[in-house]
Amino acid sequence: MKKLLSFVMVAIALLTVSFARPAMAGDAAKGAKIFTANCTACHAGGNNVIMRDKSLKKEALEKYNMYSLEAIKNQVTKGKSAMPAFGGRLSAQQIEDVATYVLSKAESGWK
What we know:
It is built from 6 helices and no strands. Helix content is 59%, strand content 0%. It is globular, with a radius of gyration of 18 Å. By secondary structure, it is mainly α. The longest helix is centred in the N-terminal third of the chain and has 18 residues, at 2-19. The model is unreliable at 17-22 (pLDDT under 50).
């Protein structure tokens, strides 16, 4: 009976970890305000006015291996190509909030 109970507990733990969606550490509501103040000139509605194929839409983020908090935080912090670095202007928490906002909007189709 002990073995069966142990097996069931391990199975539940594994299933919980396997199917759980990773939690976003940032605050999307705060990220929305920061995004509006710093990013909408080029990325309104998840678009990209400079490099249209590199939008913030889920398909583009996946295509360019940017569909993760870490990838977005790195891009916002360091910049790349035409995108300026915001690491000197925004705190690490603000960047985390923006990344959380971008992922949540990408997931909802920027609606």
